[in-house]
Amino acid sequence: MGVLPASVRPIGPIINHHSINRMGNRSTFNIQLFDGFTDNLAFLIPLGIGLLTLSLLTFLGNAMVVHAIRTERKLHTVSNMFILSLAIADLIVGLIVMPLSSTYVIFGDWILGIFVCQLWLVIDYTASTASIFNLLILSLDRYWSIRSPLKYLCKRTKKRALAMIGIVWMISALWAIPIIGWHLWYNDGIRKHPNNVCETEFSDSVVFKITTSIANFLVPMTLMMILYYKIFREIKRRDTK
């Protein structure tokens, strides 16, 4: 996200003393300034509206799920506890991650300082990882419920579900360690990114990024596909009896 297309960059940098000197005369400068201004506005206005709409829909959709599960007693089931945890993760994305990301894209520079940058990155990585792992434990719950219903129902308690959800969020929160401390271990305590760029300090570490991508995305997605395939096979096997 540090390098953005020229069309996404803010309007302000269009005007500087170098460009004025190159223009040569005032009329040419005014025409080019107006063209640059309108070109940027023509892109940024619909982009801002689109990003804001997407963020709002994400927030409202998941807020409705959270409200429904919390207020309707008949929805207070073990399965819905996993759905609630998933909705909270996506709610955080819609409420915090997406609006700040939209601001970054529209302005072209990070303007909120290092502290907010690191907080945003921690929340982003944590909520996104929690979302994927919540989907995984939800698929595990469905698989166990179909594969061994009687045996699993004895173990399928709210306490057990809370423990699984707690583990998911604790694992996801481990992202805070490399996001906050990477430069202390590998860059002699020096941040390599300027203050107007909000990016992780490990963004150039190919090994770390590949390893975490496998652990946080590829493995959970593969397991989910296997579990849902087994669920499909089990349902099909029962239908043929």
Automatic annotation (TrEMBL):
It comes from Dermatophagoides pteronyssinus. The keyword Phosphoprotein applies. Keywords: Cell membrane, Disulfide bond, G-protein coupled receptor, Glycoprotein, Membrane, Phosphoprotein, Receptor, Transducer, Transmembrane, Transmembrane helix. The chain crosses the membrane at residues 43-66, 78-98, 110-140, 161-186, 206-229. The keyword Transmembrane applies. PROSITE patterns: G_PROTEIN_RECEP_F1_1, G_PROTEIN_RECEP_F1_2. One of its GO terms (biological process) is regulation of vascular permeability. It is found in: Cell membrane. Belongs to the G-protein coupled receptor 1 family. One of its GO terms (molecular function) is G protein-coupled serotonin receptor activity. G-protein-coupled receptor for histamine, a biogenic amine that functions as an immune modulator and a neurotransmitter. Through the H1 receptor, histamine mediates the contraction of smooth muscles and increases capillary permeability due to contraction of terminal venules. Also mediates neurotransmission in the central nervous system and thereby regulates circadian rhythms, emotional and locomotor activities as well as cognitive functions. Its main location: membrane. Residues 61-241 form the G-protein coupled receptors family 1 profile domain. InterPro entries: GPCR_Rhodpsn, GPCR_Rhodpsn_7TM, Histamine_H1_rcpt. It is a multi-pass membrane protein. This is Histamine H1 receptor. One of its GO terms (cellular component) is plasma membrane.
